């Protein structure tokens, strides 16, 4: 390590993500504790965290507050604080109003603002400094997602001894779209600080390598990007020639845990209750999404309302339950989307509902995991109609819960899950007629065909679960580290 960095006593394994995997809970006496948040990333990292005793660097979720490092369930957490301007410009601005729409194929126009970028750089530097301060000599640092794309490069400058890995949870766009980004080279160079860069789909990794060829001029050999030596210049030290693996590692879920939850008596009872409370419709179509313009909720509603209009489905016979969990509510595009969806739902229910039945049951809130599992069990059809989605875990969760091998998954080709779940009814959400046909096919599908399709999808998901995902990824990271040791990379 450089001598201007305090020799860290630190950890062999460091995880860095925008958000720490914990939520603060305050009890009635005002006592504050932290509870592990139930997200997929946390589950994915659990075995790693357990075996390697890691430290996790991230933002604790509050603004303008300094929180000392603390420990939850054996994991050390190192909070990185954000002030109100940083939250607005680094997080809501550059991360969620520039990178998010750009990487999801410009479904909503990205904002390009220089002050957002400046803040993205300074906050990324803070995360990199924090990670560098707790990583042991030669440690592995695993950086997650689009909010922190500059961290690998910054870490390499600070600590060339580290093994650096990065995983992108969202898509990587074609170079034509990526090329819009005024800071495209800097973002690529930031990412190329890593030894291994993981993507959801084959196409994402290929798009990334093509952007690197075009905008950085570095060739690749298969999945391996070849970087030439960077000679020392004033202020910057020499970086040796190296290789960067850019490959797909499709993320997954803890399938066994979902299956167990869905098998519990209380969840099964709740699933029956849900059907009853809806007035025992013949068929339930379910949508579960963060309220996000990438998820194709409007397109789904359009197809469903046309089926009602055409008399193909009737209120009372078929109910669409749409759970839309609140998301990024201060970002303008999300406020517009919410208004549009709520107007559309009101219109559909006004036009086609009866006193007894609303065709769309719209729920703008989050639910406990048990309720989600009960909804999955109650649903005859799960509609995933994303216009772009890195993977879409909801699709996998649905199949994992269906040990009865019933239920039909209607799945967008534009979700990463479509690469693996080939026996879903694949749809192009822009093709409303195609989507209507798929919904009708799903509603009419025989039990035998449902069973064949569901069985095939479950096989894929139970084989390639999240433990397998992190093992595969970390095996590649270890191989990269080994290669570096053998070739004498500094
Ligand atoms: C990003 C990428 C990629 C949702 N509402 C509730 C709830 N959820 C849970 C779901 C699922 C998760 O949130 C959502 O994951 P998705 O994969 O569907 O989508 P994103 O949030 O956009 O995630 C995505 C993922 O990262 C992982 O790499 O697959 O493409 O965009 O687990 O079940 N959970 C509970 N209540 C809710 O109301 N308990």
The helix content is 40-55%
Strands side by side in the biggest sheet: 5-6-4-1-7-8-9-12-11-10
- Helix run count: 16
Mean pLDDT over the full residue set: 93
Sequence-ordered SSE layout with sheet pairings:
Blueprint: E1 11-19, E2 22-26, E3 32-36, H1 40-52, E4 55-59, E5 70-72, E6 75-79, H2 84-103, H3 114-134, E7 135-144, H4 151-158, E8 163-167, H5 175-178, H6 184-191, E9 196-199, H7 202-215, E10 220-221, E11 224-227, E12 242-248, H8 255-263, H9 265-277, E13 283-290, H10 297-309, E14 318-325, H11 332-352, E15 360-363, H12 369-378, E16 381-384, H13 393-401, E17 408-412, E18 425-427, H14 432-444, H15 447-463, H16 466-487
Parallel strand pairs: 1-4, 1-7, 4-6, 7-8, 8-9, 9-12, 13-14, 13-16, 14-15, 16-17, 17-18
Antiparallel strand pairs: 2-3, 5-6, 10-11, 11-12
This protein binds GDP-alpha-D-glucose (GDG).
Explain what the structure shows.
- This protein is 44% helix and 20% strand.
- The protein is built from 16 helices and 18 strands.
- A ten-stranded mixed sheet has the order 5-6-4-1-7-8-9-12-11-10. It has a six-stranded parallel sheet with strand order 15-14-13-16-17-18, with helices on both faces.
- Helix 1 (40-52) crosses helix 16, helix 3 (114-134) crosses helix 4 (151-158) and helix 8 packs across helix 13 (393-401).
- The protein is globular, with a radius of gyration of 23 Å.
- It binds GDP-alpha-D-glucose.
